[in-house]
Amino acid sequence: MGTDVLVIGGGNAALCAALMAAEAGARVLLLEAAPRAWRGGNSAHTRNLRCMHDAPQDVLVDAYPEEEYWQDLLKVTGGRTNEHLARLTIRASSTCRDWMRRHGVHFQPPLSGALHVARTNAFFMGGGKALVNAYYRSAERLGVQIRYESPVDRLEIENGRFVAAHVKGERITAKTCVLAAGGFESNREWLREAWGQNARGEWPADNFLIRGTAYNQGVLLKHLLDDHQADGIGDPTQAHMVAIDARAPLYDGGICTRIDCVSLGVVVNREARRFYDEGEDFWPKRYAIWGRLVAQQPGQIAYSIIDAKAIGRFMPPVFPGVKANTLPELAQQLGLDVEAFVATLNSYNAACVEGQFDHTQLDNCHTDGLTPPKTHWARPIDTAPFYAYAVRPGVTFTYLGLHTDDTAAVRFAGQPSNNLFVAGEMMAGNVLGQGYTAGVGMSIGTAFGRIAGSNAAHAALNTGARPHASA
């Protein structure tokens, strides 16, 4: 069978591409690897979109101009980003919400526990699941054909041009194709290969939990990179990686397994030692570094420690914390060396400099003479009851992907394909070389999904036309 535009994937980026292509008049077929009940990939677990805006806009307060957004992204990536593509994403985030609303997405003010993002992020009414369902309904109304349980295992590509996709022995042809099938975070063997064995003889990836879908195996990504020598970008160990509850399920734990009290207390490893500044910056700008930090600790486990003063100041996770009336009792319950644990907490408490605590800003509560320091929100952990949350690395999505440009074209030996495009996690590494800031993944997927869908439709309906760059 043949179609104008074949979209491979079923999450936000794939749906944006399918909707744009259908709106342009193309016949569209979307292939989702998951069953219908699990459709949407990681997008079903999302909550919001980071949006540039120069003035207050409905659910967005104040302003969040382009330059501030860019500086936030530059800081978390440490400069490992393509500025042209990053700014393209930022500008697109300022104009996409009306289009999203036309396809059934509703927005709401942020929840009270969503600290520091009321100004920068637009929250989806009903979360990512509602967004995904709205897009599927709209796609069906526009005539997009949708096939579930349809994993693509290989592509036919000739001289940089897409020819056909193979699904369970079936050959599907199309004039153009959009790849939006996610990263490889669910592929344990690939994660093991990427992370290797550490100096302690551990295989860190064996202790990683996957926050999202079990269906992002990276089959097409590996196929494109290894078999077709598509141009790649990114480090296979870099990912959106969060410290999540060690009791979380292996897959699809989602947002509720995240531990958000890190900046309100201290974090110690299995040896009862602190290893990083818990108060370095606002949580939405720093939460995604903690998975990688924990991955580097013995046993890939750590413990977030707070006292009664922190309760009510963070979004509570789904599982209750370990609770004790004394610090030695807490250490015993965690199976940590009591003497080392108490010594660490006593050193921290003694180093805290009294200031004006304010968790809504970078306050003056810090430590003095402590390594590592705690730069902000440093208050002694001295008020019972005490609480602890064991955390492990939770991988959201990987950053290794396909190199692209502002047309979203896949590149082979530096040359852009004229009928094969990429969006979402499969190309996010062009913008995210490392680090993360809340909501930017959805910004990238929405921007490049729309570009890819538009250009795929244009190429399909105008044979021989070259894809055009987005402003």
Automatic annotation (TrEMBL):
Domain FAD-dependent oxidoreductase 2 FAD-binding, residue spans: 4-432
Stated name of the protein: FAD-dependent tricarballylate dehydrogenase TcuA
Domain of life: Bacteria
Pfam families per the UniProt record, alphabetical: FAD_binding_2
Keywords carried by this UniProt record: FAD, Flavoprotein, Oxidoreductase
Cofactor: FAD
Keyword Metal-binding: no
InterPro entries recorded: CobZ, FAD-dep_OxRdtase_2_FAD-bd, FAD-oxidoreductase_2, FAD/NAD-bd_sf, Succ_DH/fumarate_Rdtase_cat_sf
SUPFAM superfamilies: FAD/NAD(P)-binding domain, Succinate dehydrogenase/fumarate reductase flavoprotein, catalytic domain
